[in-house]
Amino acid sequence: MKRLFSIVLTIIFGLETAMACTNLIVGKKASTDGSVMCTYNCDGFCYSGSLFYTPSGRHAAGELIPIHGWGPTHKDRFVKQVEYTYNVVGLMNERQVTIVETTFVGRKELVNHEGLLDYFSLMHLALQRSSTAREAIKCMAELVEEYGYNSSGESITVCDPNEAWIMEIIGKGPEHNGAVWVALRIPDDCICAHANLSRIRQFPLEKKSKHSISSNNLKNINNPEIECVYAKDVISFAKEMGFFKGNDEDFSFRDAYCPIDFENVRYADARVWSFFRHHYSHEEMDKYLPYINGHFDQCDHLPLWIKPDKPLSMQDLQADMRDHFEDTPLDMTADMTAGPWGMPIRPLPMHFSDSDSIDYFRERPIATQQSAFTMTCQMRSWLPDDVGGVTWFNCDDANMVAYVPLYCCITQVPDCFRSENNPHNEFSYESAFWMNNWVANMVYPRYSMMIGDLREAQKELETYYFADQDSVLLSIKDMQPVERQSFLNRKSIVYAERMMQRWDKLAKFLIVRYNDQVVRPAKDGELLRGPYSTPGYDKQFINAIGKSTDERYRLKKVIERQER
């Protein structure tokens, strides 16, 4: 157990500097089938994605867990183990509790490097110890109080088959132990999101609402009427530090601990805005464009959650994870910065300057090339936990992969998702990360030309996976738990193998079909004999060429014909 826990933290090392993830959240009455759903794009350059796994187990009294997190003073420091820990696959445990995150940084002076627990250690410990979302929130609050917290600000999604919560937490700086935090239950009929910016502003206070408790009363968190929980000193500490002056009921967590500016709104909340816009009136959501454009005197926040126009399916949510602001005023495919073939991917840095020292920025969408892995998680209260919890998972950019269903009870990680098969600095045909990157990096430069073939393979796989879910439920109907677990292990492995085989075929198909800047004919994923085509540049790029180069590339005969 100790060895596996250390491995998990080694795999995740580097997320502290990534600070670039996205979570989308759907309440059970906002989904088409009654599922609670959430998502995670884990975005960060320079490390390969893989599926985390920790088996369940019983532990001896007095057992300690060594923590090898990100703080510099963690050698020979430990957390007390509990009697029983749950099986954890990815970021969902065997009871369907799911915890995902995005980093909002916030006030940097509140990072406490002496604290023992970074955000991922905290999340993983809670997954091992919690059977509900409420238990996970209580667990994380008690752990940071006892052991300290060393990460910067985090927005954390905490879900189970019945509820979805958003919890925001930030440390208290080198001179103070613990953290300040607040957690809100998302209404069942609403959707929510966060993407590297604190989202919680005002919240109901214990002394004024029967639905709220402070950390003084965490023993009452399982009361179903409780919909808000917060650290007892979340407001008083902000006053002590000079982050807030005023009446307690006017306190805003975001404004105190993560003040907004144009950059963090445009790079972060723009993603939330785009998600909401997919599922709500465009006209109403576009009223928030002044906020997205930095005009905070006109509007200074998005709603924390909205009730969507109609319920979302898992397929809807997976499409949302592939967003680049298409068909919005921020569309990344709609001007010359998309290049000759409408590419929605942009190179870093986020800021750049022209020869006249004029500064520019690039958009930051939900889907991005630097994703290490992506997941969409489904929790279903009407099914046994082992089959009710499904993590749809893959490595690399959500836009460029097929989501593979993996069940929360599995005890065997499919080979292509194992950490040892996804090396950081070496290509491997056994690696989901590198196979997906091989295809993606062929498609990116000639996006509009090649994306159709990738979409065809993506749709083929995901259509099969979704269609097969009914047969899975039918197959396990009369099985005992041990037999179900064995069956679901085999299913998850077969699903992953099918994806790898299809992506190998796709990679080889793309290199032949699009060789040397031409396009060979194809039908149903198979190349045909016949003449090749030369589709050329996207029209928006051709128009940009004319404007920027004047007559340099204009055909003279065209000019002469016009003059006659």
Question: Which features does this protein show?
Answer:
alpha+beta; six-stranded mixed sheet; seven-stranded antiparallel sheet; single chain; 32% helix; 564 residues; disordered N terminus
If you had to describe this structure to a student in words, what would you say it looks like?
With 564 residues, this protein is of the alpha+beta class. Helix content is 32%, strand content 18%. The chain has 16 helices and 24 strands. A seven-stranded antiparallel sheet has the order 17-14-1-2-20-21-22. Strands 10-11-12-13-16-15 form a six-stranded mixed sheet, covered by helices on one side. Strands 3-8-9 form a three-stranded antiparallel sheet. A hairpin with a 4-residue loop joins strand 11 and strand 12 (164-171). Helix 3 packs across helix 4 (133-147) and helix 13 packs antiparallel against helix 14 (481-513). It is globular, with a radius of gyration of 25 Å.
Number of strands: 24
Q: In terms of per-residue confidence, which ranges show pLDDT below 50 for 5 or more consecutive residues?
A: 1-18
What is the beta-strand fraction?
A: 15-25%
Structural class: alpha+beta
> Strand order, biggest sheet?
17-14-1-2-20-21-22
Distance between the termini: 84 Å
The rough form would be described as globular
- Counted by DSSP, the helix tally is 16
What's the pLDDT, averaged over the residues?
A: 93
- What percent of residues adopt helix (DSSP H or I)? 25-40%
